[in-house]
Design a protein that fits this description.
It contains 8 helices and 6 strands. The protein is globular, with a radius of gyration of 27 Å. The two termini are 30 Å apart.
C-alpha cells in the first residue's frame, strides 16, 4: 500500500528535468526494491471492536472491588482497601466466539463520592449490584443505588442489564439476609441473583458471565434491529 501511495504522489508531482552537468555528477543509483505483492495488503474491513461498560454499585465494604479482582486476576485481598472515587480496569474475553473488551468502572460506595459517581453512569450496559449477606443495611440500600442510577443522566435503566450479588457467602458469621428474600427482590426487578464469595471464588465466574452474555445478547439484537447483522 505504501508503494501505491508513493506512486500516486509521483504522478501528481513528476520530477523536474535536471541539467546535463548535474546529471554527469550523479552516480548510478542502486536498484530499488520491487513493490510488495498485492497479497501483502488487504481491502477487508477491520475486525469489529466490541466493548461493554460495566459498573459496580453497592455500599462500602461489601466486596465490589474484591469480586472484580477475583474474576480478573483470580486473587483475593484479605484486607479492606477503600476505593477512591472510581477504579477502572479492562479484561478481554470471548463471548460466543467474539472478542469483547470488558471495561470495569468500580464505584466507591462512600457517599462523599456521589458527584464523581454521577459522571460515570452514562453509557453503561451492565451493572454488578453488590451487598453483604451479613449486613441487612447493605441489602436495604440497594433501593438507594437503583434510585441513584435512575436519576443519573445518560443511563437507560430499561436497557441496563443487572446482576445482584449477595457477597461473602463463605463467611462463618451470622447471616442477616435470607436467600429467598434476596432472590424475590431481584426477580421482581427482572434481574439475576447470585450468592458469591470473593474469597473462594464461588459463583463469581457464573455471575459475571451471566451479565456479560446478557449484554452481548442485547448487542446482537441491536445489530439486527438497525440492520447491521
Amino acid at each position: 500500500m505504501i508503494a501505491r501511495v508513493q506512486e500516486y504522489k509521483d504522478r501528481k508531482n513528476p520530477p523536474q528535468p535536471q541539467s546535463a552537468s548535474y546529471q554527469q555528477q550523479q552516480k548510478p543509483a542502486a536498484a530499488s526494491q520491487p513493490p510488495p505483492p498485492q497479497s501483502s495488503y488487504s481491502c477487508q474491513p477491520p475486525t469489529e471492536q466490541v466493548s461493554f461498560k460495566i459498573i459496580s454499585v453497592g455500599n462500602a465494604e461489601v466486596g465490589k472491588s474484591c469480586l472484580i479482582k477475583r474474576y480478573c486476576e483470580e486473587k483475593f485481598v484479605d484486607r479492606y482497601i477503600q476505593t477512591i472515587g472510581i477504579d477502572y480496569g479492562v479484561k478481554k474475553l470471548k463471548i460466543k466466539g467474539q472478542t469483547v473488551a470488558i471495561n470495569f468502572f468500580d464505584m466507591s460506595g462512600n457517599e462523599d463520592y456521589r458527584l464523581i459517581r454521577s459522571e460515570f453512569y452514562a453509557d453503561a450496559c451492565g451493572c454488578l449490584m453488590v451487598f453483604d449477606l451479613e449486613n441487612r443495611d447493605s441489602f436495604n440500600s440497594l433501593v438507594h443505588w437503583e434510585d441513584e442510577m435512575r436519576k443519573s443522566t445518560g443511563i437507560e435503566m430499561g436497557r441496563l442489564k443487572v446482576v445482584v450479588c449477595g457477597n461473602k457467602a463463605d463467611s462463618k458469621g451470622s447471616r442477616e439476609v435470607n436467600s429467598k428474600d434476596a432472590q424475590k427482590w431481584a426477580k421482581g426487578k427482572g434481574w439475576e441473583y447470585y450468592e458469591t464469595s470473593a474469597q473462594n471464588g464461588s459463583n463469581v465466574g457464573e455471575a459475571f458471565m451471566s451479565l456479560f452474555e446478557a449484554c452481548h445478547t442485547q448487542f446482537l439484537g441491536d445489530k439486527r434491529t438497525f440492520g447491521f447483522a
